[in-house]
Amino acid sequence: MSAFDSFPLGQPAFVTSVLDRAAHLRRDDEKLFALEQKPSSRAYVVYRDSLLVKREGDKVRALLSIDEAVKCGANPGTVFLGLRDGAAVFGMGMPQTAAEKLIGRDDYSVAELRGMAMQGAIPPDELSAIAMAKSMVGWHQRHGYCANCGTRSAMKEGGWKRDCPSCKAEHFPRTDPVVIMLVAAGEKCLLGRQKQFPPGMYSCLAGFVEAAETIEDAVRREILEESGIRCTDVQYYMTQPWPYPSSLMIGCSARALNEDIIVDRSELEDARWFTRDEAALMLARTHPDGLAGPHPFAIAHHLLGRWVRDKSGA
Ligand SMILES: [Zn+2]
Fold this sequence. Notes:
Bound molecules: zinc ion
Helix content: 25-40%
Number of strands: 16
Strand content: 25-35%
Number of helices: 9
Largest sheet: 7 strands, mixed
């Protein structure tokens, strides 16, 4: 299966969920404990930006039994992700020592999530639950202490909350909004490249929404800061959860009011206008100069793809 089949237009990674979050079960500690002991329960085990998988022939399986996860050294603390076909699914982390012990094994391995997903090794409908596991496990690892008083906090409600036993503050996992936008001026669109991009790759501009800022203002501000382009007609398209570590990419389009680009070199290596025909070649990876668009894994591909397809877009 090619990346284009895995992530058809309008369906980037992490958006299609087969899990019922079953939030009503989060406060029922007894029920959650009982679910965790059930043989039908499963877990996704994450380690940094990687995922524990079981090799089965030329395929990999990410959804493990609790027994398989624990035998590989997964941490006992679990986050209740939800129900899949009635069976409970948990998210687990693993310590570095356990991940290192698996090096060289041919039955299990810890492999980088993005690479496996881009190659289609992980079914796309599993990626949303894996993103939940990754974001939630990472949040617990980074937020073990109360931000208010510094006391060690305790996981509650199936992992969807941490309570401070000292000052009684409640802490909830955060999601950071990021705007990502396709800016067009008639038959041209604005794309930029960051230094760490693969050679020849250009993508949509993006940036974090700031405190007390609207999505529309964030789009206009980021575009102006990074490229010197003023824009208007900000339109929402779709969102993509982005578990690096816990962002929500808010995909928008906007119309440019000027065309003279001034690149902010502290943010971007380059930014320029591309015609619709060029953008189509870049998305198909057939541009004669080797230029490429964003991978179908990412929402940027879908923002650009929609603009290429829909001549009335943006
Ligand atoms: Zn506290």
